[in-house]
Every structure is written in C-alpha cells, then in structure tokens.
Amino acid sequence: MALAYDGAIQNLIDAFAKLPGIGPKGAQRIAFYLLGADDQEAQALADAIQEVKAKVRFCEICGNVCETSPCPICVDPRRDRTVICVVQEPKDVMSIERTREFRGLYHVLGGAINPMANVGPADLRIPQLLERLGSGEVSEVIMALNPNIEGEATTTYISRLLGPLEVKVTRLASGLPVGADLEYADEVTLGRALVGRREA
Amino acid sequence: MALAYDGAIQNLIDAFAKLPGIGPKGAQRIAFYLLGADDQEAQALADAIQEVKAKVRFCEICGNVCETSPCPICVDPRRDRTVICVVQEPKDVMSIERTREFRGLYHVLGGAINPMANVGPADLRIPQLLERLGSGEVSEVIMALNPNIEGEATTTYISRLLGPLEVKVTRLASGLPVGADLEYADEVTLGRALVGRREA
C-alpha cells in the first residue's frame, strides 16, 4: 500500500482540500465522516452542489446571486427604488439584509479595485451602475464596501465618477464596533470614531 | 426576500455546515467559492462524494477502508503476518503507515470503549481479532489506540482478554513528542517519559 489512500477516498480528500478554509487534515476528517454517514446525507451534499451550479445565476440588474433573474429584491415593489447600496460581493447583500435597516436596492460590483490582483475598474460592474443611475429615479448611492485599502480606493473612484451626477453618494460610518473595548481599538478606527462623533 | 438565501444556495450552505469542522460562516464561504468555481471543479467534488459511497467498503479481515476486500495490506505477501497492530479508526492505519516503521498487519476496532457514548466491547471488532489470533500465526499484538481515557481502557480490556493466549501484547511508548519543550509538557506525559526512560 502506498502512503496515500485508495483511489476514491484520496480523490474525495483532495477535492475537499481544494475548498477555502479546509486543510488536508480537515479534508481527511470530512471524508471519513462522509464514509460513515448514511448514503442519504452524502447524496444530499452531492445533489446540493450540482443543484447550485445548475440553478443559481446572477441577477441581470443588481448582480446578486439568485434563482430567478431579475432577483426577488429587484422586483419587490415594497423596496425603496430611490436608494442603491453598492457592495463588493453577493454575500455582503445578505449581511446588510440581516441588519433590517435597509429597504432600498443593491448593486453588486463583483469585487474591489486591487492592482496587486490585477483587478481594475473595468473588471467591476461599474458601467451597469451608471446605467441604473441614468433613469434619474435614484437619489442616493450608499457605498458599503469593505473598510480596507481596496474598498476605500473603489469607494473613492466611484464617488468621483458619480460627482457630476445629481445623486448623493454616502458611505458606511467608520467607528468602534458595538461591544468593543476602547483599549483595544486601533488608532485609525478610534480616530475615525472621533472625527465622526455625534450628539449623545 | 427573507433573511436566508434562495433555496439552492441555502441548501448547499446547510449541507456543508453539517460536516465536521465547518461552521455556518465557513459553509457560506465554501458555497460562494463553488458558485464562482468552474462547473468542472464543482462536478468533480459531487462525483467524488458519490464515488466514495459507491466504491469504498470495509476489509473483511482487518476492518480498514478499501475498494477491494480483503484490502491491499491484508493480501500483501511482503507484510509480516506475525504482528498485528490494533488501531481505533481506519485513518489511524494511514498515520502508522506514514511512519514507515511498521511492516505487519492491522486490525481496526472501529472505536474505543466509551460508556458515556454507549460504546461497549460488544460494539468493537474484538471477536474478529480473537479469530485472527486463533490461527497461532501471530506472535505479537501492538495496541496503538489513542492515549486518552477511552483508548487506555480499551487497551487494558483487550490486554487482559489476550492474557491467556500465547501472544505478546505491547503498546505504543508514551513520552515527550519529538520537538517538544520540557517546560510545556504536562505532568502525566513527563512522568511517563521518566518511567519509560531508555539508555542514551
């Protein structure tokens, strides 16, 4: 016997080890878990993978993932069509939905400007955003990108691009996370919290 | 839109979150990774899951996982048939194979005695071990269970069971892990290392 498992087991370990956040030991653990699991559970996982690739597409309007295009948010008549929240990835839509603080529409860029990874403005869904703003219906664009270098650069780029248009561009507040400890806050975050202070 | 994803995506997240070592955030990350991956890679993962359930079985002799029963180790004429190494799980076979220090046969118990989890001697492959020893060919049984309470209890139980037979029962050495620091060793491990000291 070689120092690897028989074909099918090793194939499964290798396939899991390719996924983000799973190392070789974790992949082995999962493979043996599936070996011991009943056939139904393993089949359900295989089916779920195939189904998501077969059914899920991107919304032609906002770029979010969905099973019907346009997506349920874009066609929902109860949503406020005058505000668009711009996010990097489809999963950010869910993060904002969970706050229950936003009832407008979304626009998923599909990333952020990152010269190190060869992602420029042309690789993002920026023309689609401009097209949506062309109708004149939108009065505010909320930039909700990640508060890191790439997100900030993209926010600045898009803000300037929208400058000439008659639309207010806002961004998420920077500051201390709720429940955080002042002692452990980094200087930049604490500085932003100070600059952005509000009346108590 | 509800506060969960559309059907297929949520199904996939739920299916991954059931696997050991993957939490809800990790499952979401994997689901979006697969959404972005090319169809071939996702299909390969689904296929690997189905294949492992269809092909992999347990060796009728040693209880290891394999695609042919008896397994390649049990039928290998170059292995030393006078020594059997007893382990808890199939993955432990691979751990010992990787040391390249053992050329005998294996016997997988399928667990260890654990009254808290309702696992008693009757749930383990102990009768099969006794049957293999019945031929008289085996001169040594190496107990290689996990060095924890359940493993120790099982080792003691099986050692006593094999007492009347003409077979030497040994166990893995306890001691300091190679590369470890004396300062951080727990008392029990350090005590065992002292008791089991060898000539330098």
From TrEMBL, chains A, B:
InterPro entries: DNA_Rcmb_RecR, Rcmb_RecR, Rcmb_RecR_Znf, TOPRIM_dom, TOPRIM_RecR. Gene3D superfamilies: 3.40.1360.10, 6.10.250.240, RecR Domain 1. Keywords: DNA damage, DNA recombination, DNA repair, Metal-binding, Zinc, Zinc-finger. A zinc finger (C4-type) spans 59-74. GO terms for biological process: DNA recombination; DNA repair. GO terms for molecular function: DNA binding; zinc ion binding. SUPFAM superfamilies: Recombination protein RecR (SSF111304). Pfam families: RecR_C, RecR_HhH, RecR_ZnF, Toprim_4. Residues 82-177 form the Toprim domain. HAMAP family: RecR. Belongs to the RecR family. May play a role in DNA repair. It seems to be involved in an RecBC-independent recombinational process of DNA repair. It may act with RecF and RecO. NCBIfam families: recR (TIGR00615). This is Recombination protein RecR.
